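Deadline looming. Please check this record:
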Amino acid sequence: MCRNVLIYFSAEHKRDILTRIHASLNPGGYLILGASESLTGLTDLYEMVQCSPGIIYRKK
């Protein structure tokens, strides 16, 4: 879970953080973000599963 944290980082740092989280997740693992956060540019790593009220992504 990484809710309402990524908004405080630059795009470059956010990509690094999300790539590291991806590497630590089990296959098919989930990442939960806050409603104001997104995975722009990382659709090769994650797929959106649910969008209400937060955003849930699954590791590809």
User: Anything to note?
Assistant: The longest strand covers residues 46-50. The chain has a mean pLDDT of 88. The first helix runs from residue 11 to 24. Strands lie at 30-33, 46-50, 55-59.
